[in-house]
Design brief:
Layout (H helix, E strand, L loop, with lengths): L3 H26 L5 H27 L6 H16 L1 H12 L8 H20 L6 E3 L5 E3 L3 H21 L6 H23 L3 H45 L2 H17 L1 H23 L4 E2 H19 L3 E6 L6 E2 L4 H12 L7 E10 L2 E8 L13 H17 L2 E6 L5 E7 L4
Parallel strand pairs: 4-6
Antiparallel strand pairs: 1-2, 3-5, 6-7, 7-9, 8-9
C-alpha cells in the first residue's frame, strides 16, 4: 500500500532539490550580476542543495532499522547545514550596507551564537537530552531540544532587527527581499521548536531564499541595463570631447611646414599623429577595459605631436614601471590633454608634466602632475576640463570600480590621481 505522506515528502524534497539546482545554475552563469552577489548565491545554493540531498537520503534510510549510525550522521549534517545560511545572510546584509564584518557588533554576536549552536550540536552526538537516534533507527527529540534551537532563533531575530535598523541604508527592493526571507523563516523555526516539523523549516527556508534571490536578481539586471545605457551615453560624450578640430588643424599645418624644413621630423610627426588617431578611434569603439600599456602608447603619441608644436615649452617625464593592469579606454590621454590645453601659457615658464604609475595596497595608481595654472585660475566660464574629468570618473566607476581625484599641486599646478582596484 502506498504511503501518501511519504510519497508527498519525496516529491516535495525532489522539487526543492530541483529549485536549488536551478538557483545554483542561475547564480553561476546569469549575466548582469556583480561578482560578490554571484559568489554569495553560488555558495548559498550549494549549501541548500546539499541540505536537500541530506533530507532525501534521510527519507531513504529511515525505513531501515539497521541503519541507525547512518541516520545519526545524516541528522547531524541536516542540523549543521540548516544553520549555515543564517550567519551567511548576516554577512550579505552588512555587505549591502557597506559595513565591515570584522568591526560589526551584530556579526560578532551571531558568530558567538552560532559557535554555541555548533558546540551543542557536538554535545548532542554523545548525549540524549538534546536529541538521539534509537538502535532501531528512530529519531527522538530530547527534553532539552529547545536549547539547541535557541541560538538559531536568536540569530534570526537579530537578523530581523538588523534589517529593520538598516532600512534607511537599503534600497526598497532589498529591504522587501530581506523581510520576505526572514519573516516566514522565523515563524517556521518558532513553530518547529514546539512541533516537530523539520521539513516545514527547510521548505520555508528554500522558498524564502528563492524569493529574495528573485528580487535581488531582478534588481541586479536593472542595474546592469542602466549601466550599459550609461556606458553608451559616456561613449557618445567621449566622441564629442575628443573632436578637437583646432588640434587637428594645427597638427596638419605643423606637418605642412615641416615637410619643407625637416622631412624626417615631418615623417615622425605624421606617424605619431596617425598612431594617435588610430588609438582614438579604437578607444571610442571599445566597450571593455584595455591594457594600460595601450593607453600609455596612445598618450605618448598625443604628447609627441604636441611637443612638435610647442617645442621648448612642453616637457614630459615618464615614471611608469607598473603597466600590467587594465583601464577604461581614454582614461590617461584625456587627463594629459587637459593638462596641456589648460596649462600652456606663453607668458609663463615651460609646462612640465609628469606621468607616474605604481602598485599599492589599494590596487593600481596613476598620477598626472603639472606645473600649470591649475583649474582654480583657469577661465571660470570654461567647464570643459571639469566635464572631461567627470566623464572619466563616471566610466571608471561603471567599468571597474575605479576612482579619480583632483587636487592642487604644491607650488602651483594640478595633480590628477586615478586609483583602480586590484581586480583590474
Amino acid at each position: 500500500m502506498i504511503d501518501w505522506f511519504e510519497l508527498f515528502c519525496y516529491l516535495l524534497c525532489s522539487a526543492m532539490l530541483t529549485l536549488t539546482a536551478v538557483g545554483l545554475c542561475i547564480s553561476a552563469v546569469m549575466p548582469g550580476m556583480n561578482r560578490w552577489n554571484r559568489r554569495f548565491f553560488t555558495v548559498l545554493f550549494t549549501v541548500l542543495f546539499l541540505l536537500m540531498v541530506a533530507f532525501i537520503v534521510d527519507l531513504i534510510i529511515y525505513e531501515f532499522p539497521d541503519m541507525a549510525l547512518a541516520e545519526r550522521i545524516v541528522v547531524y549534517f541536516q542540523y549543521l547545514l540548516v544553520s549555515l545560511p543564517m550567519p551567511m545572510f548576516t554577512g550579505y546584509l552588512l555587505h549591502s550596507c557597506g559595513e565591515d564584518l570584522r568591526k560589526s557588533t551584530l556579526f560578532r554576536m551571531e558568530t558567538v551564537l552560532w559557535g554555541i549552536y555548533f558546540i551543542l550540536l557536538g554535545v548532542a552526538q554523545c548525549t540524549t537530552f538534546l536529541y538521539y537516534v534509537t538502535p532501531d533507527n528512530q529519531f527522538i527529540r530530547g527534553p532539552w531540544h529547545p536549547l539547541l534551537t535557541a541560538p538559531i532563533i536568536a540569530i534570526m531575530l537579530l537578523n530581523l532587527a538588523g534589517v529593520i535598523q538598516r532600512r534607511n541604508r537599503l534600497s526598497n527592493k532589498y529591504y522587501v527581499a530581506f523581510l520576505i526571507h526572514l519573516l516566514p523563516m522565523t515563524v517556521a523555526t518558532l513553530i518547529h521548536s514546539v512541533i516537530f516539523v523539520p521539513l516545514l523549516v527547510v521548505v520555508g527556508q528554500i522558498f524564502s531564499m528563492l524569493s529574495m534571490f528573485g528580487i535581488i536578481l531582478f534588481d541586479q539586471i536593472e542595474q546592469h541595463i542602466r549601466q550599459q545605457r550609461e556606458i553608451a551615453h559616456q561613449r557618445a560624450s567621449i566622441m564629442v570631447l575628443q573632436m578637437r578640430p583646432h588640434f587637428i588643424f594645427n597638427t596638419m599645418m605643423s606637418i605642412y611646414y615641416l615637410c619643407a624644413q625637416d622631412s624626417k621630423k615631418a615623417q615622425q610627426v605624421t606617424l605619431d599623429f596617425t598612431s594617435y588617431l588610430r588609438k582614438n578611434f579604437t578607444a571610442i569603439a571599445s566597450e571593455n577595459t584595455i591594457p594600460f600599456a595601450n593607453e600609455l602608447e596612445h598618450t605618448r603619441a598625443y604628447l609627441a605631436v604636441e611637443q612638435v608644436q610647442f617645442e621648448d615649452s612642453l616637457f614630459v617625464e615618464y615614471d611608469t614601471p607598473h603597466t600590467r593592469f587594465r583601464v577604461p579606454p581614454l582614461t590617461l590621454q584625456p587627463i594629459v590633454e587637459n593638462a596641456v590645453k589648460h596649462g600652456m601659457d606663453p607668458d609663463s615658464a615651460p609646462l612640465r608634466i609628469c606621468i607616474r604609475t605604481r602598485e599599492t595596497d589599494a590596487g593600481h595608481e596613476i598620477t598626472v602632475e603639472d606645473n600649470g595654472p591649475g583649474f582654480a585660475q583657469a577661465n571660470t566660464d570654461d567647464s570643459e576640463p571639469h566635464i572631461a574629468l567627470a566623464n572619466i570618473q563616471q566610466r571608471l566607476e561603471i567599468m571597474c570600480g575605479g576612482k579619480l581625484t583632483v587636487m592642487p599641486h604644491e607650488g602651483g599646478g594640478t595633480v590628477v590621481k586615478v586609483i583602480l582596484p586590484e581586480t583590474t
